[in-house]
TrEMBL record, chain A:
<dbReference type="InterPro" id="IPR027417">
    <property type="entry name" value="P-loop_NTPase"/>
</dbReference>
<keyword id="KW-1003">Cell membrane</keyword>
<keyword id="KW-0472">Membrane</keyword>
<comment type="similarity">
    <text>Belongs to the ABC transporter superfamily.</text>
</comment>
<dbReference type="Pfam" id="PF08352">
    <property type="entry name" value="oligo_HPY"/>
</dbReference>
<dbReference type="GO" id="GO:0016887">
    <property type="term" value="F:ATP hydrolysis activity"/>
</dbReference>
<dbReference type="InterPro" id="IPR003593">
    <property type="entry name" value="AAA+_ATPase"/>
</dbReference>
<dbReference type="GO" id="GO:0005524">
    <property type="term" value="F:ATP binding"/>
</dbReference>
<keyword id="KW-0067">ATP-binding</keyword>
TrEMBL record, chain B:
<feature type="domain" description="ABC transporter">
    <location>
        <begin position="4"/>
        <end position="253"/>
    </location>
</feature>
<dbReference type="Pfam" id="PF08352">
    <property type="entry name" value="oligo_HPY"/>
</dbReference>
<protein>
    <submittedName>
        <fullName>ABC transporter ATP-binding protein</fullName>
    </submittedName>
</protein>
<dbReference type="InterPro" id="IPR003439">
    <property type="entry name" value="ABC_transporter-like_ATP-bd"/>
</dbReference>
<dbReference type="InterPro" id="IPR017871">
    <property type="entry name" value="ABC_transporter-like_CS"/>
</dbReference>
<dbReference type="InterPro" id="IPR050319">
    <property type="entry name" value="ABC_transp_ATP-bind"/>
</dbReference>
<dbReference type="GO" id="GO:0005524">
    <property type="term" value="F:ATP binding"/>
</dbReference>
<dbReference type="GO" id="GO:0016887">
    <property type="term" value="F:ATP hydrolysis activity"/>
</dbReference>
<dbReference type="InterPro" id="IPR027417">
    <property type="entry name" value="P-loop_NTPase"/>
</dbReference>
Amino acid sequence: MSNKLLELQNLKTSFRIEDKYYAAVDDVSITVNKNEVLGIVGESGSGKSALAFSVMGLHNRAKIEGNIVFKGKNIANSKPSHLNKIRGDAMAMIFQDPLTALNPLMKIGDQIAETLILHRPNMSNKERTEHVIELLNMVGIPRPVYVYEQFPHELSGGMRQRVVIAIAIANRPELLIADEPTTALDVTIQAQILDLIRTLKNEMHAGIILITHDLGVVAEMADRVAVMYAGQIVEIADVHTLFEKSKHPYTRSLLNSVPAEGQDKLHVIQGIVPGLKNLPRKGCRFSHRIPWVDPSHHEENPELHEVAPGHFVRCTCYKHFYFPDETKEVHIHGNPRG
Amino acid sequence: MAILEVEDLKVYFPVKAGIFNRTVDFIKAVDGVSFTIEEGKTYGLVGESGSGKTTTGRGIIGLETITSGRVVFNGADVTSRKSKSKDMRKDMQMIFQDPYSSLNPRKRVIDIIAEPLRNYERLSKIEEKKRVQELLELVGLSPESIMKYPHEFSGGQRQRIGIARAIALKPKLIIADEPVSALDVSVQAQVLNFMQDIQKELGLTYLFISHDLGIVKHMCDEIAIMYKGRYVEQGTKYDIFQNPQHIYTKRLVAAIPDIDPRNREKQFKFRRQVQKEYESSYSNYFDNEGLAYGLQSISDTHLVALPERG
């Protein structure tokens, strides 16, 4: 059997605004393999969460086109009854905000047990309770027997996020989608949660989609990285290539805007991420944020080009891109970023 | 010259209980914090959520009633009742964390930015409009947008409206409470660059409150680390990042994700090692209540909270 766990084929997720559909995820094709962490990076509004929700089938009124092939079967636009057999079992999600992802009126233990009741109806009550406590132990919650009886408001943010993770891994999913799992947390707790996700990958050999806007988190966790801008993937490569030899102007701008050693001035990307309604649907979507690059350098219909094995870049403008605060000559001919 | 001196600042919140609603205990949000900021510098205050860093900032500017301690701003004690605090407030302004909730959604940009001007300066309508337009231009927004409402702007633009309001009265000190935490990286870069630019232009002093050590490292000259209302370490950028002494600081520094994927394994090992050290030597750094000890000086610039042993 192949190593492919999830394959998105030309996925397009559109939302209706005033009787017209606008694509928030536009023609995305990616694969996730077993035992692999795929990082998806992008600013807010780039469509990364919309992508995750599409895979999980959590959008209510969105139009989904293209294929979502999970373990060889297309699950795009499947019936909820069918999806419910997969969701929480073979495929699970860690949500961003642990405060809203948990039911405030339900005991912690019962919330975790709920997914076990649904997917493993043959489990006895005793077995189930034991399994929940084992899960709480696994995600590093101290005094699990006591926490079982507690309510979400009695736990700190980090502990709540662990509970959300415990729910997600309760049935040992093969695919785990983590949507900004540490954004709401302090750094020390973030480090612990990331460590936990790593352990899960090593122990359960799951495929993980890690969605984040934090480039540091991606650098530490991902095997491969996809960069999203305005609903499209603009660059995809293995993590080392992406951080050392990134090509797309957007990736390079993002990397340059993070405070780093010996950097005096941070790079600022001109303009703003366009709203869903105002997205340019023709030509290079990033072009209006790098107006100093000659329009003729953009492709008419930008495609992903394979510049090295496994390294894809959208549009041809990367060949002519330079940072305006640097001298032009150096970067047109020289190899950018060394 | 020191523009701000804080001496033994304490902010306690009472815990009330029982049918008479009597005070039964205090939460010591800020528990004896002292520091000075030199004019024109950026002083970073770092800590995790609940460490008291925001309360410190709010206590200094007077948004929180302080329990005891002294705040000397520009040579005048602003905590004593005799002080004319209104004049002081003009020179001390605050940038708030969340650009979505710190601007009144029902006010137009002109009214938001002109509010401090209306409080302190008598300006005619025309002068006022001109000043607001100048300020908008200074923060890089179009002067035509004065009649717009906050919801018409993006997060970064809103934060710049907040900054325009803060600098309207040409303050000397700005307390910036997590000014970029709610923003995307590229917008974050925009706001940080801008804060540095106006610092040079207007000779501002910043008290920069943040939980993000990477940003603090980029922005600040001096840095203090807070934990449970107390300082655990204070020093220059070099002291804190290259030579951290307190285990809590080490743990924070180790937890910063490294942007270079090649250092991944090294970073993970280092973090484990620090975590082990944290568990084994916890009692050397924290007292019986889990609080930091008093500060000991280990060099001219570097203070660390260690038990008194010399």
